[in-house]
């Protein structure tokens, strides 16, 4: 649900033993209808996870230095429905009650403020507890929460749990319940949503956590406990085309009702409960809302030559060319032309020839700043057409900062480089280039004791482009 392309790529099937079958026009129409719905949903969740560069004022001047040429544009950072942020390292106490403290933060760059309540066993327990950032990027809400501990050694029993959860990401939320000594519960109004620990950090006595809430995925849908969810059996090979017209209608009606009943994240109460285990012995509850802190107009987009690249492997061909950018409330987005050709017969034949279980090459965008920080930007195929916002242009892409902790852990394994999940403050220069990442999986050992080896490499496949911020 979070990345339809990665799910498809994770499916490894030997098609050679199956006969080809021509689909009826009815089956084709049914599949096309489902794909269109997936793509529409895919776009709604694609513009996620990024944060702005540096301490620019609300109006900032950006100069792009590319091969000796200079491109300049004045850009207004503003919060929009799909991309908004409120962030400050300093919080102001508004009021104090028995077990509740009300605080406020103000974002100087976007001009927005947020008031939130912190509930603890006693108000004094909330002295060192704060929300540093809340952002909405596409359908994901991210909350940065800081908690000062009187004895940082109490966190040690949780460290292994936190490391495991960051590695797993949202792929296995049940692990939090299995491990037992840490839990996250999030709600939009009274509806529990899927949420997970994305990254964390310990500085002195402060535990900083980045929590992600999926505003269009309820916990009940995610774990299959929604009593209204129709249980439809899919054929492993023919997939949606094997579903009866009656079952397809039930599924369509369910999701129509499901999305219509979801709370509006911009106009609802957001509640986050964090239980930090028996050693710390405290539950922290944060309650707030985004209070319509956004504008209806879009941020401007500017053209520039950001480089291009093409890769071919095992019958696959992928190309992209970076040709424009925008500065959103949460940061830099890149756009351009995209194409991909797939020859699965050639792919499976080459896998067999090479004796591999899987092989994949992927084009990403690597960035680095003048402060020594490194970043990865995900390339998301598909982009809404400027001329018709209801239609997706599949020959385009949007690239946004990768902030997924589990993905960043994998990229670090390949390169040995630490990648940041947020742009650092105070950047004056940032460079970027298209990077080819390769992932190879081999299965060895014996039938009774199989082994699995996953390796990867990376290689810059375009010339670097430097952006100078003024």
List the SSEs and their pairings:
Elements: H1 4-10, H2 25-44, E1 59-66, E2 69-76, E3 83-87, E4 92-96, E5 100-107, E6 112-119, E7 129-137, E8 140-148, H3 156-168, H4 174-179, E9 183-188, E10 191-203, E11 206-218, H5 219-223, H6 245-261, E12 270-275, E13 283-288, E14 301-313, E15 316-328, E16 331-341, H7 344-354, E17 358-369, E18 374-384, E19 392-401, H8 405-415, E20 429-445, E21 450-460, E22 465-469
Antiparallel strand pairs: 1-2, 1-22, 3-7, 4-5, 5-6, 6-13, 7-8, 8-11, 9-10, 9-12, 10-11, 12-13, 14-15, 15-16, 16-19, 17-18, 17-20, 18-19, 20-21, 20-22
Can you walk through the features of this model?
The protein has 470 residues and is of the alpha+beta class. 19% of the residues lie in helices and 44% in strands. It contains eight helices and 22 strands. The chain has helices spanning 4-10, 25-44, 156-168, 174-179, 219-223, 245-261, 344-354, 405-415; strands spanning 59-66, 69-76, 83-87, 92-96, 100-107, 112-119, 129-137, 140-148, 183-188, 191-203, 206-218, 270-275, 283-288, 301-313, 316-328, 331-341, 358-369, 374-384, 392-401, 429-445, 450-460, 465-469. The strands form two sheets. Strands 1, 2, 14, 15, 16, 17, 18, 19, 20, 21 and 22 form an eleven-stranded antiparallel sheet that branches. The longest helix has 20 residues, at 25-44. The radius of gyration is 23 Å and the shape is globular. Residues 1-75 have low confidence and may be disordered.
């Amino acid at each position: 649900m979070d990345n339809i392309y990665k799910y498809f790529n994770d499916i490894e099937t030997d098609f050679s033993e199956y006969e080809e079958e021509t689909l009826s026009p009815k089956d084709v129409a049914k599949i096309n209808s489902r794909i269109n719905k997936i793509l529409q949903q895919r776009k709604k969740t694609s513009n996620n996870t990024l944060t702005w560069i540096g301490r620019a004022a609300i109006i900032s001047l950006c100069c792009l230095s590319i091969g000796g040429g200079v491109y300049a544009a004045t850009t207004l950072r503003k919060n929009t429905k799909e991309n908004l942020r409120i962030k400050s390292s300093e919080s102001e106490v508004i009021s104090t009650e028995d077990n509740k403290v009300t605080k406020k933060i103000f974002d100087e760059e976007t001009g927005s403020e947020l008031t939130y309540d912190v509930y603890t066993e006693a108000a004094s327990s909330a002295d060192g507890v704060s929300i540093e950032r809340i952002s909405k990027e596409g359908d994901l809400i991210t909350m940065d929460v800081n908690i000062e501990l009187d004895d940082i050694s109490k966190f040690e029993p949780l460290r292994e749990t936190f490391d495991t959860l960051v590695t797993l990401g949202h792929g296995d939320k049940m692990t939090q319940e299995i491990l037992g000594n840490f839990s996250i519960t999030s709600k939009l109004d009274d509806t529990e949503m899927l949420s997970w620990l994305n990254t964390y950090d310990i500085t002195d006595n402060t535990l900083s956590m980045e929590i992600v809430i999926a505003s269009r995925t309820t916990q009940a849908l995610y774990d299959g406990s929604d009593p209204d969810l129709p249980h439809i059996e899919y054929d492993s090979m023919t997939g949606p085309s094997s579903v009866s017209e009656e079952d397809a209608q039930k599924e369509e009606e369910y999701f129509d009702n499901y999305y219509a009943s979801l709370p509006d994240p911009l106009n609802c109460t957001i509640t986050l409960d964090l239980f930090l285990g028996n050693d710390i012995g405290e539950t922290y509850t944060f309650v707030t809302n985004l209070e319509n802190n956004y504008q209806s107009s879009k941020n401007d987009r500017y053209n520039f030559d950001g480089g291009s690249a093409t890769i071919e492997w095992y019958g696959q061909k992928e190309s992209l060319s970076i040709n424009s950018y925008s500065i959103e409330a949460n940061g830099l987005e890149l756009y351009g032309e995209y194409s991909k050709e797939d020859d699965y017969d050639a792919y499976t034949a080459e896998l067999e020839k090479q004796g591999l279980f899987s092989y994949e090459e992927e084009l990403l965008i690597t960035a680095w700043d003048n402060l020594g920080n490194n970043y990865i930007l995900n390339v998301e195929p598909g982009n809404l057409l400027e001329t018709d916002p209801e239609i997706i242009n599949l020959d385009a892409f949007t690239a946004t900062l990768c902030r997924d902790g589990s993905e960043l852990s994998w990229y670090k394994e390949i390169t040995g480089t630490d990648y940041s999940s947020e742009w650092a403050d105070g950047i004056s220069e940032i460079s970027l280039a298209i990077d080819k990442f390769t992932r190879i999986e081999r299965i060895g050992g014996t039938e009774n004791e199989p082994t699995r080896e996953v390796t990867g490499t990376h290689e810059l496949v375009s010339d670097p482009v430097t952006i100078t911020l003024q």
